[in-house]
Amino acid sequence: TDDDVSDNDPKEILEKIQEQKDIIANVRSRPWSMKKKLKVLDAARRYVEKHEGRLSKTNGYSEAGKEVGFVGIAWRKFKRTANNVCVVLTPWDMRIKTIESYFGSGVASYFIFLRWLVQINVIMAIITTAFLVVPEILVGNTTAGYKQIPVSERKSKWDLHTIWSFGGRLQHSVLFYGYYTNDRVVGNGYRIPLAYFLVGIATFAYSFMALLRKMAKNSRLNGSASSEDDYTFSWRLFSSWDYTIGNQETAENKSAAIATCITFQQKAIVEEQEKEKKEYTRVKLLIFLRVVANILVLLLLAGSLYSIQFAVNRAQSLENEERESTFWEQNELSIVVTAVTMITPSLFEVIGSMEKYHPRNTLRIQLARILMLYLGNLYSLMIGLLAPGNTNIVKKLMSYDRINGSYLEHEVFKNKTAVPGQRTECWETYVGQELMKLTIIDLISTVLTILIVDFIRALFVRYFNRCCCWDMENQFPEYGEFKIAENVLHLIYNQGITWVGTFFSPLLPALNVIKLTLIMYIRSWALATCNVPHQRVFRASSNNFYLAMLLFMLFLSLLPTVWVIVKHPPSSCGPFRNREWMYTIVTETMDNDIPSWMKKALGYLTTPVVILPSILLLVMVIYYLQAIARSSKEANNRLKLQLHY
After folding, report:
1. How far is the C-alpha of 280 from the C-alpha of 288, rounded, in Å?
2. What angle do CA 599, 601, 607 make, to 5 degrees?
3. Residue 423: how many CB atoms within 10 A of its CB?
4. Helix axes of 508-530 and 427-449: crossing angle, nearest 10 degrees
5. Where are the domains of the chain?
6. Which of 162, 204, 471, 506 is most buried by a 10 A CB count?
């Protein structure tokens, strides 16, 4: 009891705490009645909760830990404190752990993935802000004519209609490509055009490195835990409970997590049942249904691409009309892209139900179709915006006036030739505006979908279920499912838009940070109030599966930016104006700013004498590492085989 130990003797209190913890850990094996076990367990927990916190503030642990020395104890306390600080500073850590305890690790993986994307976008925003936005504000040429708002637009520069379309003051700001200066050197030697080019490369390079590092880390973790996958039911049934838990709330969370994980074990049961099913007797009908389903999917994909191209062409034709556009006309392109992105995956799911595939294969096919849809939408949009033949994109015919040594720009725009010296359009800013609007409208549609499809639907089911003749909670309309894979693909699509648009709008990653943060809170709230986990979650929902798709999206997002830099002439605004190609800023810097000895060194390094041996050495290193990996894998397989026997 508490009275048997002096309150002023930390050593005795420490011994008593250790004794009570031993009782908590071993009470199940004691030959006592259940009533006595519960009574003793309750008393032991109360004693630990009462005295352990107070003891940590005294020198009790120091007295008991003299064997390891004060330095060792101080180091342990420092590490424990550092770990606690890291947990506190980790964004949304407790929120995600609560979700995991009630909905399982599969649902939590979505929010962990979302948090990691926020971190990626924060770093990208820091890079673009530190090396582009801040230098442009501090040392950029703010008096340049192309940075000034035209007289005809000054009255409406802060109108709500203008702000929504990112026009007026927002268009002529550091938000977009066209505002940045083209002076080769500004201030005390800072080169904004070169910085713009290098930052565009750096954002993609950082994303590649962070993504590959994350995949390697997950592979190591999955490899170390692979042995637990062999006996899933045994591990879950006999080894799930943590007998060191002494807190009631923690125990309830752990119980909820175990119950959820056992519920999700139905995926393995379904797989076993599917193996035992008889072959489908009506083979011809099944083949016919699958052919029809694929034809419908192709038609939907073609219709999606056509609708986006139609919206792009319509937006460009409206630019030729000399009248003020309506709200719908200004935002038609973004609304069409968002609507196609939100509606088509649900149609894919309806079509997939008629194919009668194995549930795991159904999920994989569904994900592949959605990914094709997102990629098609993104590329269709970018092709429509960047196609050289479009009337909204400026076609420049540059001629050099050898009499006065200045450039004369002749633009073909709206089928008219602009007068030299007249203010010209900037297609890079136009692309940035459209991607900004697409990001905003996608966020609004996501919020509205959650409120209407999930929240209002849940309210209807909850309060009208008792008045209905069937079980509305388990049948139509039932609660909305939290579809992990589809939601993750939507995040990947959104990140693809950010990667493509960062070159045209340097602050787009900062906007995406705000968007993802709002999605984190809204999704977690909807999950806790009006969603239920997806009925079937298969191995396709592993983290590396998501990361592999994200890596694929990153590679495909890089291609339009590379094409713009290498093959598309820049317009008459922004950091690369008056240049034939964007990448010529690198050759200009090498010709004007690099010493001659460095030019010779770089020229020597780019000769075949250096490149060919380097490639050969790289191939040999890769082959050597692959041989080591194969031998390690074979050794692991042999060790696993020995453990089985």
Report:
1. 13
2. 105
3. 12
4. 10
5. 10-63, 594-644
6. 506
What's the distance, CA 418 to chain centroid?
A: 43
User: In sequence order, what are the residues at sequence separation of 6 or more whose Cβ sits closer than 8 angstroms to the Cβ of residue 538?
Assistant: 267, 359, 360, 363
| Residues whose CB falls within 8 Å of the CB of residue 41, separated by 6 or more in sequence, listed in order | 23, 24, 27
Distance, CA of 456 to CA of 247 (rounded, Å) = 37
Closest to 382 in 3D by CA, of 427, 340, 332, 445? 427
Let me know the angle formed at the C-alpha of 210 by 206 and 216, rounded to the nearest 5 degrees: 145
As given in the structure block, the two tokens for residue 70 are: 């004060």
pLDDT band at 634 (very low <50, low <70, confident <90, very high): confident
Helix axes 192-224, 584-593, angle to 10 degrees: 110
Q: What is the pLDDT of residues 441-472, one digit of tens each?
A: 999 999 998 988 888 888 888 888 778 777 77
pTM equals 0.74
DSSP class of 186: B
Q: Please tell me whether residue 482 adopts helix, strand or coil conformation.
A: strand
Question: Measured between alpha carbons, how far is residue 146 from residues 267, 414, 430 in Å?
Answer: 60, 20, 15
- Counting residues of the chain whose pLDDT is more than 70, the rounded percentage is 78
Q: Write the CB contacts of 204 (distance below 8 Å, at least 6 apart in sequence).
A: 499, 554, 558, 561
Q: What is the mean pLDDT of residues 626-633?
A: 87
Report the pLDDT averaged over residues 410-437.
Answer: 60
Whether the ω angle into residue 560 lies within 30 degrees of 0, i.e. cis, is: no
First-to-last alpha carbon distance for the chain, in angstroms, is 49
Token pair recorded at residue 586:
């690198």
The partner residues of 395 in beta bridges, in order of sequence, read: 412
Q: Under the phi-then-psi rule, with left for phi > 0, alpha for psi from -120 to 50, and beta for the rest, what region is 406?
A: beta
Contact 581/566 with Cβ under 8 angstroms?
yes
| Residue showing tokens 């000034």 | 148
What is the rounded CA–CA span in Å between residue 443 and residue 516?
Answer: 9
Strand partners, 531: 480
Q: Is 561 exposed, middle or buried (0-12, 13-18, 19+ CB in 10 A)?
A: buried
- Contact call for residues 439 and 508 (beta carbons, < 8 A): yes
Residues 6+ apart with CB under 8 A from 233: 265, 268
**Tokens linked to 626:** 């692959």
Q: What is the pLDDT of residues 326-379, one digit of tens each?
A: 777 778 888 898 889 888 988 988 888 888 887 777 877 888 888 899 988 888
Residue (of 478, 538, 401, 400) closest to 109 by Cα position: 538
